[in-house]
Design brief:
- By secondary structure, the chain is an all-alpha fold.
- It has one domain: Up-down Bundle (Four Helix Bundle (Hemerythrin (Met), subunit A)).
- The two termini are 21 Å apart.
Length: 129
C-alpha cells in the first residue's frame, strides 16, 4: 500500500507545482492579489500552467476517495498501486500536454487518469459487496 500512499502525496502536491510554474512564467508575480494577477496574464505558458493547476485540484478528491475506498474495502494492494501509478503518470502528462498545447493528448491523459479513478471506485464497490 505504500506506493499508493506516495501517489496520494504526489497528487496532493501536483497542483502547487503547476501553480509555481504559472507564477514563474507570467509577468512579475503580485502576491497581494494573486487571482487578479493571473487574470491579467497573457503568457500562454502561465495560463496553461494555471489551467493544469486548477484541473489537478479537481482530480485529487476523486482519486483520494478511490484509493482510500479501495483500501478500506480490501482490494488487492497490487491493483491499487498499479492504478495509482498510472493515474500519477497521466496527471503529470496532462499538465505537460497543457503546457505544450497538445490538446488531444491532454484529453487522452485526462481520460486514462479518470478511468483509473473509476476503476478504483468500482473495485472498492465490488470488494465491499
Amino acid at each position: 500500500m505504500t506506493v499508493a500512499y506516495w501517489c496520494l502525496l504526489i497528487a496532493a502536491l501536483l497542483p502547487y507545482a503547476w501553480a509555481a510554474l504559472a507564477k514563474g512564467s507570467g509577468q512579475r508575480y503580485d502576491n497581494r492579489d494573486p487571482r487578479a494577477w493571473q487574470s491579467r496574464q497573457d503568457n500562454p505558458r502561465s495560463n496553461a500552467a494555471y489551467a493544469a493547476h486548477l484541473n489537478a485540484f479537481e482530480a485529487f478528491a476523486p482519486f483520494a476517495a478511490g484509493v482510500l475506498g479501495a483500501q478500506m474495502a480490501g482490494v488487492d494492494t497490487g491493483i491499487i498501486a498499479g492504478l495509482s501509478v498510472v493515474f500519477i503518470v497521466c496527471r503529470v502528462l496532462h499538465g505537460v500536454f497543457y503546457l505544450t498545447r497538445k490538446a488531444p493528448l491532454r484529453s487522452l491523459a485526462w481520460a486514462i487518469g479518470f478511468g483509473c479513478v473509476v476503476a478504483l471506485l468500482v473495485q472498492a464497490a465490488l470488494a465491499a459487496a
